[in-house]
Every structure is written in structure tokens, then in C-alpha cells.
Amino acid sequence: MTEIQSIATPAGSVSAELVDFVVHEARLADENRYAEWESLWADDGIYWVPTGDQKDPQTQVSFVFDNRHRIGSRIAQLRSGRRHSQTPPSKMRRQLSNFEVLSDDGGEVELAANFSLFEHRYTTTIWAGRYLYRLRYTADGLSLVKKTVLLINNESAIRTIAFIL
Amino acid sequence: MTMRLEQDRLAADAIDYEKLIQRDRVHGSLYTDADIFQKEMRDIYESQWVFVAHESEIPEPGDYVRRRIGEQPLIVACGKDLKVRVMLNRCTHRGNMLCQSDAGNATLFRCSFHGWTFSNDGRLQGVSFRGGYEQSLGELRSELGLAEAAQVGTYGGFIFANLSGDAGDLEHYLGNAKDAIDRLVRMSPAGGIDLSAGWMKHDNNANWKVVNEVQVDGYHPLFVHESLYKAIKPAKVDYSSDELRVAVRDLGGGHSEVDYTAEYQAQDREFIWFSSIPRSRVPDYIEAMEALHGPERTHDILVDGPPHTFIWPNLFLAEMQVMFIEPLSVEQTIQYTAPIKLLGAEEMSARIIRQTEGAMGPAGFLIADDAEMGERNQVGLHAQEPEWVLFGRGFESEKVEPRGITSYDRTSETSQRGMWQHYRTLMTETTND
Fold first, then answer.
1. What ipTM was estimated for this complex?
2. In this complex, which of B196, B358, B368 lies closest to A70 when CB atoms are compared?
3. Could you tell me where the DSSP H helices lie in B194-282?
4. What's the predicted TM-score (pTM) here?
């Protein structure tokens, strides 16, 4: 993970293409548009929600560490109509801000953003943290290679996260 | 040290638990009454053996984790003598929480309020500006060490503590559930398990007994987990079959198990309990197990698999996961889940971490929906009519066997009946004192 101190993204320099992509991704997640959300992923995609900011997923447990196959399973379960923990589905709206490009080698770009997410299901729960994205430039536009969700409360007991974070 | 000099009378002592807990039904108020919760914390959690941590979490001198028993905050620490101590996380001066980190390594704890220091074996080390006291530092030290659990015991690396000193011998308490820990440990070719992959912590708005009941329930999978079996993969066994050789067993003492051994042995297939992976996926594990046990015994172990055993009141050996709960209030329970690393089996352990994330925890394909059931259960229980919750299922099919009261109908509510009968004993004993 890139150390925050080493980042020096000049203000306004994050391209509109990158911001548009992750804002679109956030909207699909907010609106439970599962199939469209799944279609953003590259074949080697990893969706990761660690249990702490400094965890090694190979030796430590995560809340979510989905490879592309398991992302497909997660979406299939949500679409089954019998995923009780999302029946009814959460209503959500999230804000992204503080965009920073962490690296860009021309083929792939690492982007970071802060987020706050308001989730309503019986009661309203506030989620907050930092998103780290790895995006790949392809002939068809950007695809999502990795999405890491660093929840501010990831070392504490958290409520159910059966929706898309 | 005696934790309580005398029993406080609680409002819930006056309740007639014999009436509220019958053989086939319990009263709904047992899940929603805050006075009853207070009594449970005193008469169950703070009076009996409770699981607090695993030795692999605190292997080195100075290692500690923060936990709780009932409403009491604890430090579970490994001293430089390698002895495990369970201490109350309260400065003996003015009651400040002494240790704030969830886990770490420290030779001493310094109270942030007035700077008193305690060594990690609980002894008072230093008192700031000690001239303010008439006693000598030696006297202060002998009187003001951290309070400790009266009894601490370990079995198979699992650390249990008892605050009261009245809970008897640990192995006696474990009783027929002791074998489950042996069965788990024998899955490792090095004879030990390790929980260093850490815990997922899940906040459930449900009474602790609801959370336990869902864990041991063999009736719900086809309904609660239908989305998993239909959309992703079929269940490991055919839950709709009446021919299934599964034993649901009340082991006594509130402990229970769902025992698939006979079904797995009849199929004679390895790893049914682990997505039926072929041996070729974990060659190092197979090699290490065969080196230790020989081919035949290894085959048997890999057919039988790990335990599926609940250890009263808060520990659940969920095959390749360890789960435990901390009740926070009558309506809130924290559920902890850790993947089990098998010592001497790295590939297998790495797979167990991925399996755990798939099934368990706040985002898991199974547990997210179990938690939803628990929370809906908690809401429903607030309705005053009908008054009773039914646990009579499979009662007629039970047989008394050497290991415990057993039903060969996997949907029997035998486990829950076992919990409740033990609960009634514990809640009644104090009432009648």
C-alpha cells in the first residue's frame, strides 16, 4: 500500500475519466444495480474489506476477500431474491471526496478517495472510510481490478455488510 | 480473590424459572427482560467457566488481548513466566480502564489518569508521588494488585476463566464437550491450532441466547440459506433427505453437538466438511498427516472432519472456525469468528481463511443471513402473545446414549433443549440460596 506521506497529487489533477468511473461505480452500488456493478470488474478483480488497515490478506482474515469468481457468487446470491440480510435491500447514498492518484504507469492507475455512506435498512447506519481503487485502461475504457475498503471501524464489531460497500 | 463478598439481591431473583423454562417451551420474556439479563451475567457469565481467548493469541511474554466476561472488562495476558492471567481491566486506584488497546505486547500497564503502573502479571509496580500515602510502597503493592479471575484453565490451547472461584474443575465443566477440542486439534499434523489470523467481529442486535440458538439449529438451513444453496452451490449434505445420518446431541452442561460422523463415514469421502476438495489441492497437508498418522488413520480423520460443537455459554467450534460471543446488553451481542490455522499445514490454513470469509462474519454468505434471523427473532419476541417459544421438535425421537441425549433427526431442537435445561439449573440455584 502506498504511504499517504509519499503522495503529492496536485489539486485538480485527477482526471475526469477516473472520477467519473468511480462515481458511476458508487452509484451502481448505492442503487443495488448488481449486474451492472459486476460488469465493471476485470477477470482478475479483487474486492477486499480488511479487518484492519495494515492486514495481510494471505495470513489474516478479512471481512471480504472476493476474487472475481466469488464476486460473481456474491452477486448471484443477492439476485436470488432469498438473501434475507438484503431483503428488503438497503437504501444507500455515498459521497466520494479527496481524490488522489497514488500511481499511474499508463496501464493501471491507483486512485484513493474518502467516502461516507448512509445506509438505511430499518435504521440508518453511517459507514465511513477510504476507498483504494486499482483501475485498468482497456480498449473499452476503464475496468475495476481492485477495490479496497478501509472502514474506520474495521477493528471493531461492525453491523452486517451484505450490501455492496 | 473472591470477586463478590456477598450476593446482591436482584429483581430477577424472584422469578420462577421452573415455570418459565419447561421441557418443550420457554417464556419469551427470557430474551427481552433487562433484569433477567443482569442476573444471567451474575449467575452464568460471572459465576461459571467462560471462554476468553486462545493461547495462540498471546504466545509471547507480554502479549495481551482485551476481552470481557459479562459486563466486566478484562486483560488476558501472558506473563514473563509464560503463565496466562485473566485480570480485571480496572486501575485499583480510581477505577480507570487501564488498558485501551485491543491487543498488544507490554511489560507493564500505566494508568493514564494518575500514572500508576502495574506489571503484566497484575502486581502494582509504581505509585506516582507516593508520599501522599501513609502506607509504605510495599504495603500498597501487596494490597493493590489488579483483581484476577479466581480460576484460569486451558484445554487444547483454549483459555477459560471463572471470576467466582465456585465453578469447579475445568475438565469437569467441559465434560462430554472435551472430546470436541481433541477432535479439532487432531486435524493439525503438528497437534495444535492457531487463531493468529484474527477475528471478524459482528455486532448483532439480538439477545445472546438467540445468537447461540441459531448457531446450533439444524432446522433452518434449507430456509435461511436457500439463496446460497440455489445460487452458488448445493449444501454439503442433502438437508431435505430423511435418510441423513446426523446426530443432534445434548452433551450435558449446556454443551451440544451436531455430529455428521456417521453420514461422512457411510459416504467414506474425505473433506465433505471442506467443500469436498480433492487431496491434490493440499498435498503438503496430506503428506504431513500421513507422516504422523499413517495412511489409514489419516483417511479416517479426513472423513470424520472437525467438530461442530457448542460449549456453554459462549464458545462454538464451528468446524474450521472458532466462534464466541460477548453479550453487551439484553438486546446486543458481539459475535467473534476466527479461521483456524492448522499448525504444520500452511496451504490448508490459507484455504481455511478464504473459506471462513466466504461463509462467516458480517458479509458471509451464511452468517449475514443467520444474523438477520437473530435480529428478526429479537423484534418478534417483543410481541406479548403468544407467550411461549417452542422447542419441542424431535423430543419423542430422542434416545439416551452414553455421550448424551441424542436425536437422529437433524432438525430436532435437542441442542436448544440442552442449553435451556442447564440455564434453568444455573438460574434456579442462586434464586434458591
1. 0.94
2. B358
3. 208-215, 221-224, 226-231, 261-267
4. 0.94
